[in-house]
Amino acid sequence: MAVRTQPSSSTLSKYSILQSPGTDPITNTTTAATTTATGPAAAGSVSRDFCNNFWGEGDDGPAVLFLRMRNAMKTSEELRNFWFERAALEEEFGRRLSLLARRTIGSDETGELKNSLQVLITETQRQSESHVQLATTIRQNLMEPVSHFLDKQSEHKRTVQTPIEKKLKKKQSQASYVSKAREKYEGDSLRIKSYRQQATLLQGQGQDLDRLQARLKRAMETVRANEKDYANFVLGLSDLSAEWEVDWKNFCDSCQDLEEERMEFTKDNVWNYANLISTLCVSDDESCENVRTALDQLEPDRDLLAFVDAHGTGNMIIDPPTFVSYDGQRQSSSSTASQTYRTAQFERVSRKPEPVYQNAPDALNSQMAQDGIQVYDRENRHNAPTNYAAKAQTQAALHSSGHAAQAHSTSGYSNQASGGVPAPEETQNKLRRMVSLRRQSQPLPALPGRAQEVPVPAQPPVPVTDAGNRILFLVKALYDYKATIDEEFDFQVGDIIAVTATPDDGWWSGELLDEARREPGRHIFPSNYVCLF
């Protein structure tokens, strides 16, 4: 059930201007009027500086600006609390990773599998240290600067905003005095006018006229006193207004300076956070690459062969003992002499299921590839792009924030969105190689003195193209593509392409399996237009 959000008491929405089409929101004049009329009043407010746009009738201008500055401090407090919680999460995650890295995995294993699991533990500990370091960096480089800027905002409120708020209250009080004095003065003036009209009607009536004249005299004395008070209050308000105009203009300038600084500071602060997280991702990717490198050295056939060589108990099958009759004529030692054995020469029958990746990409790797996560085929890993020089440049670039980095990032995003250079991560890491190399069972080593040469079965030949290039895997076109240079080739949806090279830039090499449309010399195609066949 959806929950309706209640409007905040600190929102600026109640001060928002309902702007009509073609109307200046400040001067409330139409666009046509500003183009035909002359003079600064008709031209509207060209400047959008604070000092020129928070005046008007009433006290809405100060109310809006005071609220803006209070909300700015609230945002800084919330950002500081966000960094505090983010650092605590990273520290807790790093601590738990460290506890996880203290566990033992495969201590009784042998060969490269044991080494690979040890690398897993080592890299987990390294990731733990990276997350703890990130927590420290967030506190030092993100949270502390926000705290310092929040102190600056508090100082501005104490030394600049609080005095101007007091002056506003003083000005408002003086304006209320003027309003009350004007009401009294206007009331007395109306009463005197009424008395004079009555005196005209009571001419020659004696006592009634005398009583009216006495009232008129007292009213004249009262109105003179009220007139004096009214004039003094107006003069005082005029002096306060002149002083207020100067102070308010200076306050608007200081608020605009502080707000511009705050927004630039917040932008850089959050930008640095994004750089820190990107750097951590690079570090985690390097750890994953180290694990993959260790797994590259793991060949199950080789490890099992080494295990058999080191711990095998031999290939002699001892025949069961035969019955020996102890009739007193044969010695008991004859039973030992008659013990026989034979050499094990069985043919292995494997009942393990076919690996899923030999037939189709598994759902997990497909989903990871769709999410932009790098997935490398463990048997075809040497064809996957790995460029640590580029990673180092990326990591160095991530530490440099500013408008130049922002412009570079924005332009890079635009180029990618326009389809100028395909991103290899979209399809490159979810492809499996076409040919599966099946493991063949090997006979056990012969006993000493009975060594014999056992031929090793030949591996199946690696498929190649007509040009002699090794085929890595097959892909299927997802979209139509029209070549833009001589080295590229056209293809249509559903075409099958044999991939022969996967450079880091995402422009792969290969050739169409359709010989009728294959053109010599054209072998380049974009990798983000295809998927695994």
Record the SSE blueprint:
Elements lengths: L30 H6 L23 H42 L9 H91 L5 H90 L3 H12 L4 E3 L14 H5 L3 E3 L19 H8 L17 H11 L4 H16 L54 E5 L18 E6 L5 E6 L11 E3 L3 E3 L1
Antiparallel strand pairs: 1-2, 3-4, 3-7, 4-5, 5-6
Helix pairs in contact: 2-3, 2-4, 3-4, 4-8
Describe the structure.
It is a single chain. With 533 residues, the protein is mainly alpha-helical. Among the domains are: 60-294, Substrate Binding Domain Of Dnak, Chain:A, Domain 2 (Up-down Bundle), CATH 1.20.1270.60; 423-435 and 462-533, Roll (SH3 type barrels). Helix content is 53%, strand content 5%. The chain has nine helices and seven strands. It has helices spanning 31-36, 60-101, 111-201, 207-296, 300-311, 333-337, 363-370, 388-398, 403-418; strands at residues 316-318, 341-343, 473-477, 496-501, 507-512, 524-526, 530-532. The strands form two sheets. It has a five-stranded antiparallel β-sheet, with no helix packed on it. The protein has a two-stranded antiparallel sheet with strand order 1-2. Strand 4 (496-501) and strand 5 form a beta hairpin. Helix 2 (60-101) packs antiparallel against helix 3 (111-201), helix 2 (60-101) runs parallel beside helix 4 and helix 4 packs antiparallel against helix 8. The protein is elongated. The two termini are 44 Å apart.
